[in-house]
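Reviewer 2 asked us to include a model.

Predict the structure of this chain.
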Amino acid sequence: MPSSRLFSTTEEVDPGVVEGTDLRVLKYPHPSLRAPNVEITDDELTGPGCEISKIAKEMFLVMYATNGVGLAAPQVGINKRLMVYNEHGDAKKWMSEVIMVNPKIVEYSEATDVEQEGCLSFPDMGGDVERSKWIKVEAQNLKGKKIKKKFRGWEARIFQHEYDHLDGKVYIDRLTEDGRKEIQPKLDGLIDAFGEGGAL
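Predicted model (structure tokens):
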């Protein structure tokens, strides 16, 4: 299994301006990370030229620029049920790119494992997170076609992490009390930097 440290291929970076998009990764405690995310309608899914397709393409640009392996729409300020990921985190391996519209986890394995996770919205921090070893998923593709898949291991973990974002959850919500205490000083720094109006 690839290293899941900070959910990036190497060390996550803040790329600033990303060529080809105005989207940016929002840092905690930006309210978009906690806001409700609406389902994408069939009318919004009109194939490769549609707005959702454009957003997904730009999300990949941001994800690769940050050395990430996954990104959910609320992380870039778009509160829709859309996620993208590439388990390799490598733009050259574009055949592994996955776009999920309105995804749902319909079954979780009882068996779990614990791995180090982090998040692009929480720079320079991480912690152990327990997740199901496998999941069964239903979603739509960009053409609105319904798809069903079963994910295991690393891919299941990426999916569960991004899926949490669509429900307004972030990885720190799943840390143990000790894990949370360890990163609290950095969280406090993000909260202070954001100022008023943050959503904890």
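The first helix runs from residue 51 to 65. The chain is about 25% helix and 25% strand. We have added this to the supplementary material.
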